[in-house]
Design goal:
Oligomer: heterodimer
Number of strands of chain A: 0
Mean pLDDT of chain B: 87
Number of helices of chain A: 3
Number of domains of chain B: 1
Number of domains of chain A: 1
Low-confidence stretches of chain A: none
Radius of gyration of chain A: 14 Å
Shape of chain B: elongated
Order of helices and strands of chain B: HHHHH
Number of helices of chain B: 5
């Protein structure tokens, strides 16, 4: 059981790093925002694994929800390409 | 943007998201979460409604003026509850000595005024998120 949890945590952290690098590398800003939402969702699961469910709820609501919506609203006001 | 699938799904799921937000807010003293998390869930449910339908539909449900009023009202509610303690003769935000009933620990009605404070702050956070979104979407057209 412990080894399965360790494997899950390793996969989550790997996905987190891949998301963080690809957000910085993506030229299309809408794609970058969607990858950033996925980053926030994985980060919420990581907070849950770190036994901080309070922060996990906040991260899922603010990071994956409100931040994405506000950034997409900003894109609709400005340009999509970098 | 006329999309029947997005509209139906958001019409079905928005009430459940709102109930979950109120659950997080009202159980703030018992379970993980509290005013900030629950308020963010509440606010994002309203943003989802305004995005899936038009902005005018969202304004019909909750106008910009009303959300600003709720935002200022939440902060005033916090200060008023704090002043109850001073009125009772102890310090600001006094809970048990301010005369609030304590209840049984672990049940929903417990913790004195914590649930009332969390309700006010949760509504304030929700309306802050909505006002932020309205301000950004409306742009220069709003005064």
């Amino acid at each position: 059981m412990v080894i399965m949890t360790t494997i899950l945590n390793m996969l989550l952290l790997l996905f987190l790093i891949v998301c963080a690098i690809s957000v910085a590398k993506t030229r299309d800003l809408l794609s970058a925002i969607i990858i950033f939402a996925a980053y926030s969702l994985i980060m919420a699961v990581v907070w849950q694994q770190l036994e901080a469910p309070d922060i996990a709820i906040t991260e899922a609501a603010i990071g994956a929800g409100v931040t994405t919506l506000l950034l997409i609203a900003t894109i609709s006001k400005t340009r999509r390409e970098e | 943007m006329e999309d029947i699938i997005i509209r139906m799904i958001s019409r079905i799921s928005v009430p459940f998201i709102m109930v979950f937000g109120f659950y997080i807010i009202l159980h703030g003293h018992l379970t993980p979460g509290g005013s900030f998390s629950g308020g963010a869930v509440l606010g994002s449910s309203m943003i989802l409604f305004a995005l899936a339908f038009d902005l005018e539909e969202g304004h019909k449900k909750l106008s910009h003026k009303t959300s600003t009023l709720i935002e200022t009202g939440g902060a005033s509610w916090f200060v008023l509850l704090g002043l109850v303690g001073i009125y009772a003769g102890t310090g600001f935000l006094a809970n048990k000595t301010g005369g609030f009933p304590m209840g049984v620990p672990g049940e929903l009605v417990s913790g004195g005024m914590i649930a009332l404070i969390t309700l006010g702050l949760g509504l304030k956070v929700a309306s802050t998120v909505i006002t932020l979104f309205y301000n950004l979407i409306e742009g220069d057209s709003h005064d």
